[in-house]
Specification:
The complex is a heterotrimer of chains A (494), B (417) and C (521). Chain B is α/β, with parallel strands linked by helices. Chain B has helices at 7-11, 37-42, 49-60, 68-76, 82-90, 96-109, 116-128, 161-166, 168-180, 197-201, 205-222, 232-246, 256-265, 322-330, 355-358, 360-376, 387-400, 409-416; strands at residues 155-158, 185-186, 226-229, 252-255, 277-281, 300-301, 307-308, 334-337, 381-384, 405-408. Chain B contains 18 helices and 10 strands. Chain C folds into 5 domains: 2-79, 2-Layer Sandwich (Uridine Diphospho-n-acetylenolpyruvylglucosamine Reductase, domain 2), CATH 3.30.43.10; 86-208, Uridine Diphospho-n-acetylenolpyruvylglucosamine Reductase, domain 3, CATH 3.30.465.10; 217-373, no CATH class; 381-473, GMP Synthetase, Chain A, domain 3 (2-Layer Sandwich), CATH 3.30.300; 476-516. Chain C has helices at residues 2-6, 15-18, 43-56, 104-113, 143-146, 149-152, 249-252, 254-271, 282-288, 293-302, 304-308, 322-338, 361-369, 393-400, 403-412, 447-466, 476-479, 481-487, 494-505, and strands at 11-12, 36-38, 60-62, 76-78, 86-90, 95-98, 116-117, 153-159, 165-168, 198-205, 207-208, 216-221, 228-233, 239-245, 276-280, 312-318, 342-343, 384-387, 423-428, 433-440. Classes of the chains: A alpha+beta (494), B alpha/beta (417), C alpha+beta (521). Chains A and C meet through strand 9, helix 6, strand 11, helix 10 and helix 15 of A and helix 6, strand 9, strand 11, helix 8 and helix 12 of C.
């Protein structure tokens, strides 16, 4: 189909003002901060509701046009929004309704365009909080974040790897509408006599799991319900400084197996000095450089939260913290070692998405290559040396690599992340960053790190090693998107 | 009772699985969490109380024909009664063991059962009054010259076939102990015939009944108040099965371990010699969980299984568990350890229910499991109070070349006297 | 051929063997006797037999804990009890790798020894852990803190309906057993109750246990009935069971009393306390504590429990230290008091037994909580249950409103017992969701009572549909193919998607096609 005809047809569906063909805009969506090869889309379409999405998907099926769903604002770091095979960018920034906040069941239903920046303050008004990832950008789509299984800060609330995602409405690649879990029926949303909080089913298949981590290649989610939690009435932050990343693991392990309801802390994670300095720095580069020098090489951050009888709960949690501290001979302190006085700032930062520009991961050099994977508690330390070693091998300044270790799923696993900042405009730096990214990733996979979210180049690395899984994913793709119109190529095998 | 009368009990089976695994609160490990020997050995659910109840149900409904396989399944059960205890603990709505025994009786009635080796037992009993086919006249060959049972006494020592013919050392030890404690006892002499345990348990009710009636008459003639046995099989049969046939016995049944306990308490038995041994006590099924007096019940079963008048269930709680242990603890030098599956939830030795005769490989396998358990308890020896357990354990120890001994309780007492 | 794979002693088509896997009363349309039963020992044996089934178009089903589920005649039934190894308990990573024949109680006991616990997602200790691999909804009482079986499955080894061996999750990439989901889409979403092949190994999530490594269990004898009573003793400074009587049906009426109770449950969820919290109901409470049917009946007819236990909240606290216990208890009592509840009388507790009044409820409840239940709810020969599936606490409350009305005629005819309040509500994941089940207590050995129980359950299902409760999607086996085909369009045409998935993975339609999934005509 000729491009102009295509544009016209799309305009008939969404309105001409919602079809963008300006070159600068197309350029912007052709690439991101990952190493995925840039490909320019044909146009950017802004659907406003589910019916428009359906019609677009059906249209795409008829004419075999790839669709690439994008829900978050920039920057994009992982390559999942780059159209591998051209096609249309489906931009959901105009589907931005917060459909329902249910304070009783502590859930919220959002359209894909709802961002953390919009949702978090709304929830605050209702005395609720989200189990957020670490400082998502304000323009990040809440729905996408949870659908893609971004690790949240509070492992105690995560009962499995897909938590806190609940039910969803999805348009499959066939253009068919489907709702998962107890949102599926019986009847319309208005008729269903349920609060739709159960994500499992309908029937035997757990669709919400199939859709998670699929990078939009099975279906387009047009709304999702996620859990919210009660905002604490009181909070107290503690820090534990360590010299080495390896030393952070055992304390975090223990703190997630002790305390009220099995967890001393709400938020609990570890950052290296670089990342923590990037996050806390006010004036750049002075504040950053000072913090980077003064902060401990690694700091475990824990926020104790109080609910009913809030102060009492915090006291008990503190007692539990000290029990473990004594046993393992570490010293938690309410003052941030190397940056006393920044405690309140950090609490504030952790309660909200990142609202400043640029995004914190890009503050250092304007771009960033993320390497992240999952590992069980017994194996985390085996992987921590890889990125620094590979980086050093390629002449990178390893003190300029951000480190982040996040326990997840009630302490059953860890998300480990290294952020390699580089100057996008410097080809040499970019080349080095890419080499480090590729080599370290290969080495980590070889050693047994689990790249559960195979973005960009990881897709090839992972699926080339997982033939049986590849075959299953292909079968599912043929069911949910037989014409392969949804984000083709994003998982490399489909 | 016929199988038909248990129809309701059979329908109460909900397949909960408690007849197959150790009472969940009492499980101590994965290794020893199984309770039913045949279920563990053969795997198919047919080899379990649940399976046997389902089979009974199908037979009652005329939907299952008798086959060799069916016979083999029904007779592979050692009738250890674990399932009976477990099901009653959970439900108390079905006489599980009685159903299994009734099923066997039905097979015999219909000419299908028992197994050929069991038929041989019946023939032996008919001819020689013992299951082993040994001459009746040799029943008291074990008696020592110096042993002089009284003509009349309050206590009648019923030796039992297995003790008399295969484990005479138990009888000798028992008698020596009695004499040492100054206990007057009498015996039936030629009047003693097989207690009928194996015949009854293999469904050969007719012959078993004859034995029971004979023995009852012989015992009553002596006017003894207490029937003393050193065999758990005899004990459980007299207490739990005889009353079903002959009604109220009119005398007390006592196991030698109970008497030993009493004698020790009264100071009539002095255990002075040290026996340095670490022992694990094995609860014989018919002394422990099946060692209770049968209480007949007549009435109506109402909705939900409510019995009117209320039924007294045999839960196994009044079986003999502690006396042997207390006696063992009284022996200087003995260290008593417990196996994981113990007391009312003990693993069977494998010799009961005619299995020793019809399925010797199964009996051996079952005993070997138990030996492993004793070794895991760090015991030097297994002690028990049943000659059938003795035979089976000794055979298994030999087969395993296990570094473990077997003793009857009476033998250890004798060593310490 | 199957004998060649598993050995002749591990496969049988003998009617006497088959008889144990099927009971006529549980017959069609849901339960046929298998044509043969096979007991494999290894994944490779499972795979080989499944391939034989594909070659010869033999339909197979898989025995799962208490259910046998041969939905058609002439099926091969896999009994996986020989696959009963606990392969590993990883203390550091808090998971256990089990084969499908491992029982929940066996795993629980081994976990305690290592300072871990397995929050059994079922009340039956003898039930199979592997059931969770099938997506069985098995809901445990500890779900407030641990969630339930749905969430506990980790990486798995799976024999597909075509006999291929697939490793799911982190296992697929050689990264160990800890993660079920990924890489990319969560393929563990495909594991279902026997329609999608057989899971031969699965890792299950474990949790910290601050209790004794070996449970201290005292054996007592009931003074009246002579039954064994096992009392599990847990350290009092870290474990506590609390029972509360909320304003009852007599006081507030059915609706207001249950709503008040629900409000309390929500508050407890939000307060993030209580490892276990649930609305219990009177007759299982009674039965769990009774040693004989007569004892239970006496209690039922006395009416005391209907009154005293008409709205009960049970709370079980597991604490890491005494201060934790004290704090949680204060919070819970505060909430209960806000909703006008009060602690149940002493006779429900420890000393009730000594007083000869009742066997201790709390011991029975602790048994359930630790997954070592006595399963006494089956005492009368079983029960029929009707349920709603999992959704919010409020949904469970609304669902339960129909119970008094639908039950009435059967109670009046004397076909089921008048147990007044017969359903529980178990909050999950800090009260984010809840699960319920209404146990219908009749006499399954009496055909008229059994029929009444089934009719009652059916009427609940009909009413669920009419009032748009999310029941149906979880109970398709109960509805049958034709009804599900009619209902499917109401549920996003899930049946069509399920059929497509089924067809893609089971092209020869051999893996229990009729159970939950409608084969293509």
């Amino acid at each position: 189909m000729e491009r102009e005809v295509l544009i016209d047809k799309l305009a008939e569906i969404v309105g001409s003002e919602n079809v963008v063909t300006i070159d600068e805009a197309l350029e912007e969506f052709s690439r991101d901060h990952s190493f995925v090869k840039p490909v320019k889309p044909l146009c950017i379409v802004y659907p406003k509701n589910k019916e428009e999405v359906k019609r677009i998907v059906r249209f795409a099926n008829e004419h075999e046009i790839p669709l690439v769903p994008v829900s978050s604002g920039p920057p994009h770091l992982r390559g999942d929004t780059v159209p591998r095979e051209g096609g249309i960018i489906l931009n959901f920034s105009k589907m931005k309704k917060i459909l329902k906040i249910d304070t009783r069941n502590r859930t919220v239903i959002v359209e894909p365009g709802v961002t953390f920046g919009e949702l978090v303050p709304e929830l605050e008004k209702h005395g609720l909080k989200l189990n957020m990832p670490l400082l998502p950008r304000a323009s990040k789509s809440v729905l996408t974040s949870y659908l893609e299984r971004e690790p949240p800060l509070m492992p105690k609330y995560q009962f499995d790897y897909v938590d806190p995602l609940l039910t969803m409405e999805v348009i499959f690649g066939t253009g068919d509408e489907f709702r998962t879990g107890t949102a599926s029926g019986p009847g319309s949303l208005e008729e269903i006599n349920a609060d739709m909080v159960n994500p499992f089913g309908p029937g035997d298949v757990k669709y919400f799991k199939l859709l998670s981590g699929a990078q939009g290649s099975f279906g387009i989610v047009t709304w999702a319900m996620v859990k919210a939690e009660v905002a604490p009435k009181a909070r107290k932050i503690y820090f534990i400084p360590f010299e080495k990343a390896e030393d952070t693991i055992e304390p975090m392990n223990r703190l997630l197996r002790y305390g009220v309801m099995g967890s001393v802390a709400d938020e609990i994670f570890a950052l290296n000095n670089f990342n923590l300095a990037v996050i806390l720095a006010d004036k750049w580069p002075d504040d950053f450089e000072a913090l980077n020098k003064s902060l401990a090489p690694w700091t475990v951050v824990l926020c104790l939260g109080g609910y009913r009888r809030a102060e009492e709960r915090i006291k008990v949690q503190e007692k539990c913290l000290m029990d473990i501290a004594q046993e393992l001979a570490f010293e938690p302190t309410p003052y941030l070692p190397g940056a006393p006085g920044k405690e309140k700032l950090l609490i504030q930062l952790l309660s909200r998405p990142w609202e400043r520009e640029p995004y914190w991961k890009l503050r250092a050099k304007g771009s960033c290559a993320e390497i992240f994977f999952l590992a069980p508690p017994s194996k985390v330390t085996q992987f921590l040396h890889v990125v620094p070693e590979v980086a050093a091998k390629h002449g990178c300044d390893i003190s300029s690599i951000g480190g982040y270790i996040q326990p997840i799923v009630q302490g059953h696993a860890y998300h480990v992340e290294f952020d390699i900042p580089y100057d996008l405009s410097d080809d040499k730096e970019k080349e080095i960053a890419q080499k480090v990214f590729m080599e370290a990733s290969e080495e980590l996979i070889r050693l047994g790190a689990f790249f559960s979210r195979p973005y960009g180049a990881w897709a090839d690395m992972v699926y080339s090693r997982y033939a049986e899984g590849t075959s299953i994913i292909r079968k599912l793709k043929d069911i949910f998107d037989p014409k392969h119109v949804l984000n083709p190529g994003v998982l490399s095998i489909i | 009772m016929s199988l038909e009368k248990y129809r309701r009990d059979i329908l109460c089976c909900t397949r909960c699985g408690f007849c197959k695994v150790i009472s969940t609160q009492k499980q101590k490990s994965w290794k020893y969490n199984r309770a039913c020997p045949i279920h563990k050995r053969y795997g198919f659910d047919a080899y379990s109380a649940q399976g046997l109840l389902y089979i009974a149900h199908e037979i009652l409904g005329g939907r299952l024909n008798y086959t060799e396989k069916l016979k083999e399944i029904v007779y592979s059960c050692t009738t250890c009664g674990y399932c009976d205890y477990a099901c009653k603990w959970v439900h108390a709505n079905a006489e599980v063991l009685d159903i299994i025994l009734e099923l066997r009786a039905k097979l015999v009635q219909n000419g299908v059962g028992p197994m050929s080796n069991h038929k041989a037992i019946a023939e032996n009993v008919a001819l020689h009054h013992n299951p082993y086919g040994k001459p009746h006249i040799d029943r008291f060959k074990w008696m020592l010259d110096e042993t002089e049972p009284s003509e009349k006494a309050e206590i009648l020592y019923f030796v039992g076939c297995t003790t008399a013919y295969l484990k005479p050392e138990i009888a000798k030890a028992t008698v020596k102990i009695l004499e040492s404690a100054g206990v007057r006892f009498t015996m039936l002499g030629e009047g003693e015939q097989c207690c009928g345990a194996t015949l009854w348990r293999t469904g050969q009710r007719g012959q078993a009944k004859k034995l029971m009636e004979h023995n009852l008459v012989a015992i009553k003639k002596t006017h003894a108040e207490t029937l003393l046995v050193s065999c758990a099989h005899c004990y459980g049969t007299f207490k739990r099965e005889y009353p079903k046939v002959v009604g109220n016995l009119g005398f007390q049944v006592m196991h030698v371990s109970e008497l030993l306990k009493k004698l020790l308490e009264e100071g009539r038995l002095k255990l002075t010699r040290k026996v340095a041994l670490k022992v694990a006590y094995h609860d014989p099924c018919l002394l422990g969980r099946l060692g209770e007096t049968y209480i007949p019940w007549e009435g109506t079963v109402k909705m939900l299984g409510v019995r009117e008048p209320p039924k007294t269930w045999l839960f196994g709680s009044k079986g003999i568990y502690d006396p042997p242990r207390e006696v063992l603890r009284a022996i200087p030098g003995i260290e008593l350890v417990e196996m994981e599956r113990t007391r009312e939830y003990a693993w069977c030795c494998g010799a009961g229910g005619g299995v020793l005769e019809a399925f010797p490989e199964l009996a051996l396998w079952t005993a070997r499991e138990r030996i492993g358990e004793a070794k895991d308890a760090a015991a030097d020896a297994i002690v028990s109070c049943c000659p059938r357990c003795a035979i089976n354990f000794e055979n298994a120890i030999k087969h395993e070349k296990a570094d473990l001994a077997y003793y009857d309780l009476t033998e250890l007492i004798l060593k310490s006297l | 051929m199957i004998e060649d794979v598993v050995g002749p002693e591990n496969v049988s088509d003998d009617p006497a063997v088959i008889a144990a896997y099927h009971r006529t009363e549980e017959g069609p349309p849901r339960n046929y006797p298998p044509a043969a039963v096979v007991m494999p020992k290894t994944t490779e044996e499972v795979s080989a037999v499944v391939k034989i089934c594909n070659r010869y178009k033999i339909r197979f089903s898989c025995f799962v804990t208490m259910q046998t589920a041969c939905t058609e005649p002439n099926m091969l039934l896999f009994d996986l009890k020989r696959m009963d190894r606990i392969i590993e308990i990883n203390e550091k990573d808090m998971y256990a790798i089990v084969e499908p024949g491992v029982t929940r109680a066996a795993l629980a006991v081994e976990c305690f020894k290592r300072g871990l616990q397995y929050p059994a997602a079922s009340v039956v200790g003898s039930a199979l852990v592997g059931a969770i691999a099938k997506g069985i909804e098995g809901h445990g009482y500890m779900a407030n803190r641990f969630s339930d079986g749905r969430r506990h499955g980790l990486a798995a080894e799976w024999v597909t309906p075509t006999g291929d061996i697939v490793r799911l999750g982190s296992l697929g990439l050689g990264a160990g057993w800890f993660c079920p989901t990924g890489p990319g889409p969560g393929l563990d979403g495909l594991l279902t109750r026997s329609g999608m092949g057989i899971v031969t190994k699965i890792a299950v999530q474990l949790y910290p246990w601050w209790g004794p490594r070996e449970l201290e269990v005292e054996t007592l004898i009931h003074p009246k009935t002579g039954a064994f009573v096992y009392k599990t003793r847990l350290p009092k400074d870290k474990f506590k069971l609390l029972m509360f009587q909320m304003p009852g049906i007599d006081e507030l009426g059915w609706e207001a009393s249950i709503k008040n109770l629900a409000d309390a449950l929500y508050e407890i969820g939000k307060a993030e306390v209580a490892t276990s919290v649930f609305k219990y109901f009177n007759w299982p409470m009674m039965i769990e504590s009774c040693t004989t049917v007569e004892e239970a009946w006496e209690k039922i007819v006395s009416g005391i429990y209907q009154k005293a236990t008409s709205r009960m909240i049970n709370v079980f606290i597991e604490a890491c230290c005494p201060e934790d216990l004290e704090y949680q208890e204060r919070v819970i009592r505060e909430i209960i008091s806000e909703f006008n509840g009060k602690e149940a009388p002493r006779e429900f507790y420890e000393d009730g037994w000594e007083q000869g009044k009742t066997l201790t409820f709390d011991q029975a409840t602790i048994s359930i909580l630790l997954g070592i239940s006595s399963c006494r709810v089956q005492k009368f020969g079983g029960f029929v249950s009707t349920a709603c599936g999992l959704d919010s606490i409020d949904t469970m409350v609304r669902w339960g409103m129909a119970i008094p009305e639908i039950r009435k005629e059967y109670v009046e005819k004397g076909l089921i017992t008048d147990t007044l309040d017969s359903y529980w509500i178990v909050p999950t994941e800090y009260g984010h969701m809840a699960c319920t089940e209404n146990l219908i207590l009749g006499d399954p050995t009496l055909p008229e009572s059994r029929k009444a129980m089934e009719e009652y359950a059916f009427k609940m299902m009909e009413r669920n549909l009419k009032e748009r409760f999310p029941d149906v999607m979880f109970r398709f086996g109960a509805y049958g193919d034709e009804t599900v085909k009619k209902l499917g369009p109401l549920y996003s045409n899930f049946h069509l998607w399920q059929m497509k998935i089924k067809k893609a993975f089971d092209p020869n339609s051999v893996a229990n096609p009729k159970f939950y999934v409608i084969p293509e005509e």
